[in-house]
Amino acid sequence: WSKVNDAKKQQNAMEKSGGGGGILSRIAAIELEMARTQKNKATASHLGSLKAKLCQLRRELLEPKSAGAGKGAGFECQRKGDARVGLLGFPSVGKSSLLTGLTGVESEAAAYEFTTLTCIPGIINYNDAKIQLLDLPGIIKGAANGAGRGRQVIATLKSCDVIMMVLDATKDDQQKAMLEHELDIVGIRLNRRAPDISFTKTKTGGLRFNSIVQQTQGFDQAACHSVLQQYKLFNADVVVREDCTVDDFIDVIEGNRKYCPCIYVYNKIDMLDIPQIDELARRANTVPISVNSKLNLDGLLERLWEELALVRVYTKKPRLFPDFDDPIVITPQRGNKTSNVENAVTILHKQLLEEFKHALVWGRSVKSSPAICGLKHDLMDEDVIQIQKMTPAERARAAHGKKTGTTLPGTNIRDENKKKEAKKPLKS
Predict the structure, then answer these.
(1) Could you give the C-alpha distances from 10 to 6, 237, 342, in angstroms and in order?
(2) What is the pLDDT of residues 110-121, one digit of tens each?
(3) How far is it, in rounded angstroms, from Cα 385 to Cα 317?
(4) Structure pTM?
């Protein structure tokens, strides 16, 4: 009943403010209806359609269609470094002090709330990599609807590779649940992977639903059909390869969800007892620290390095020692989310792909060092690579093909009219 009462209060507030027909009032009405509806097999399809409506209204709220309204003032923080990490939390939890302690950048810190009003960047130099750390303003309840510059903060978080949620260790876990709820509303999924669902639009044939595993969370063909009706999709092929929910299927349809690893950083542990600190440290994805006392900051950097999973590749010239001072850093969260030879060559120069012949690789990714590898070979951390380019003759052969007398001049297109001459018999 607490959800019903909260939805009623939100709906009454919207009606008093004059927004009876707005998006927020419609969202509150749908949430009220969902809170009143019992969850069972008979109401699964109805709840699925309500969730689809709710998702569409929230997307309209975040991306308004009116062309007359100008864009709000953003943070204008340029992406730098090999990875980007965002600090998220409520006001006065120690985000600015943590930025100063890790990067040395002076960020204004005071005893009152909302000290930081814009995005302040800093660079962490760790293990030959440059990690950009962003100190974002503290958000409040309702940030997903635009309260307290919440939209700008969330838009910046969507560009981060890892999110560090800074929490006050002296308070309860309600702050963590509220922040996760605000991020879940705008489509940021913390410490989760994309659901293994194949969704393909077709021109005819209706809905073809196929579930490879048993569904135990209420997602079946009826719920799938109800959700697709709200999106006006009547012909589709759906293949479900894992046990999922209706919300997971809606995420696949939307296609704009951000699956991001998150580290829960509990600050101010110097005000707790040893048993309380031990209980926090045993939680999943949690690192307890104290910025003022400088406790466990090194452990936080080690955990951050594990979550980023950066791959450092050192280059080597022929007949010379490798350059261990300036490595190529591949970020798995960006691009095609792979760390192969092709990504390393592209970081050096895109034109090298046209002249690439093969690569000599030393390190843990090969069985014997050196090994001749192609573009699709997956590299591991601290590998050494030497790129071998094609000669002019090999480039010409790759561009025009081998001349056998059966191809058109200047191309590699086979000419069927030309026939190979029969070999003459051997002279006896």
Answers:
(1) 6, 38, 52
(2) 444 555 667 888
(3) 9
(4) 0.76
